[in-house]
Amino acid sequence: MKELYEKMINESMAAQNADIAVISENRYNDFKIADAKPYADAVSNMKALDTQAESVIDLHKESVKNHFEILSSITDTLECEDDPFIEHFQTPPILEILCEEDGEFADSVDEFIKAIADSEALIAKESIRRYGGFYGPTCVVDFALMPGSTSNVVNQILTKMDIPVHHKQAILSAKSWGMNTSYGIGDAFANAIEDGFTAAQATEKEIETLQLIYKTPVEGQGILMDDANHSSFDVRDYMGKYKKAMRSVVKAAMDDGVHYGNIVTVPAYCVGDIGHHIGQSTYNMCKDDVTMAVIQATAGVIENSLRNNLDKFKSPFDVLKLSTGSSACATELLFELDSFTAPMVVDLLNKRFHNFVQQNPKRGAAAELHNCDFMDMIYRGFNALSNARKVSSAPALELVPRIRGLEVDLTSIAENEVLMNPQKYTYPACAITVRFSSLMRLADYPCLLTSEPITATMMTNIIALDKETPGSPVRGCKQCASASLADVKHQYCQWREAV
User: Fold this and answer.
1) Fewer CB atoms inside 10 A, N or C side of the chain?
2) Angle between helices 103-117 and 91-101 (to 10 degrees)
């Protein structure tokens, strides 16, 4: 098992460090697709151990390879506004391949499309709740089943259906980590209401949109991108080429008995570094030295914590949990260095959300999704740091938070010249909010803190150990920060009812 743990750490940190190195080197330049080659190279070195399904590892590797090659062949760069969608062009073609290669699964998808129309009352209720901010800050494309998320609503529809369970799980995964199109529940409804339609008419439009993304996923994503004025490249051309390139890889995974829920999941989550995490918007954000330092120091905390505990892991999930937990501790510590805490930030962002709803009734369905990710992360870090402080009970003792009993190494923050000298980045005598200000920039974009390249790589490794069990969505309580500290909404979560 130690070989597996070391492999997971090496492959995931290679992906993370490739991103950070490219961003650090190019953050003052104009982004080019070619900049992302170091990440593509890092992924190409992934290998399957004897205990892992090579077909699963190939889904990850081939998706990144084809994504990079196709994108490089059709454009040199991306507009900032287009880069968030770059990881939404993979599952639509793959879902279509599954339907074309397996008629029984295609029949189940057709039944689900019919069930969407039969769920008018549910869709109306959930759309109204999202539109009005009923659930508070909501990650509408959540990788779990939190209240107000698209996967939450999809799960409610699926639970009442009489189709094979593994088909239900695949359909659910396709709108979870699979990211089947860029659509989030309630968006068509909200725009229709604001355009003067009745609630009944708005619900009809919502149902039509939800059905579209399952009837014709590729064209559905194309229409969504037309509406979003996507201009960087021809998205239909990309998806057509990606579908052709991935068909043999998908068929190999099908023949190998990989759960369809994993086939729609693995190829999508790993490509975002090319064009998004390594992209113009990231370069622009990281022009600020403190923001860049936060990302670099957090990566150091993750890597040191993982390597220090190599002989202490008891399962692959320990490796994953420590990677995300250590970054949570690092981010929370940076808040606390400026005398803020997660509960204070969660309170601020929840209050802001309700005002934001009033000022932006046509807000994008996904507007607050990363605020949710960020709040959940720092709340987890707050609990770990709080427990560590209680144990030490004295400021002279070193602060050593633990995740699953494993020690988190925070020295990368203490040794970071930029983060330890905030007075150099503002009016020197009043440097008490510098780190906080950079963290609030990252509250809209915490992908390299949480960290997505690390999580994607580790999840592929874990799924490859158990190819027949769907790895998404998370079938457990997320301990959502908003639900834990601000809103009483646990009862609307679907994690216990997940198909």
Assistant:
1) N
2) 120
The pTM assigned to this predicted structure is: 0.96
What is the DSSP code string of 424-454? GGS-GGG-SSHHHHHHHHHTT--HHHHTHHH
**Angstrom distance (rounded) from CA 31 to CA 50:** 39
C-alpha angle with apex 338: 28 to 366, nearest 5 degrees? Answer: 60
Contact 353, 148 (CB under 8 A): no
Q: Are 399 and 385 in contact (CB under 8 A)?
A: yes
Report yes or no: 22 and 35 within 8 Å, Cβ to Cβ. Answer: yes
Nearest Cα to 299, choosing from 424, 437, 459, 410?
Answer: 410
Cite the DSSP H helix spans in 139-198: 150-158, 165-174, 187-194
Distance CA 258, CA 173 (A): 13
CB 94 within 8 A of CB 246: yes
Q: How does pLDDT run along the chain (499 residues), one tens digit per residue?
A: 999 999 999 999 999 999 999 999 999 999 999 999 999 999 999 999 999 999 999 999 999 999 999 999 999 999 999 999 999 999 999 999 999 999 999 999 999 999 999 999 999 999 999 999 999 999 888 888 999 999 999 999 999 999 999 999 999 999 998 899 999 999 999 999 999 999 999 999 999 999 999 999 999 999 999 999 999 999 999 999 999 999 999 999 999 999 999 999 999 999 999 999 999 999 999 999 999 999 999 999 999 999 999 999 999 999 999 999 999 999 999 999 999 999 999 999 999 999 999 999 999 888 999 999 999 999 999 999 999 998 876 665 688 999 999 999 999 999 999 999 999 999 999 999 999 999 999 999 999 999 999 999 999 999 999 999 999 999 999 899 999 999 999 999 999 999 9
Query: In 3D, which of 81, 142, 133, 139 has the Cα closest to residue 368?
Result: 139
Q: Give the number of other Cβ atoms within 10 Å of residue 10's Cβ.
A: 16
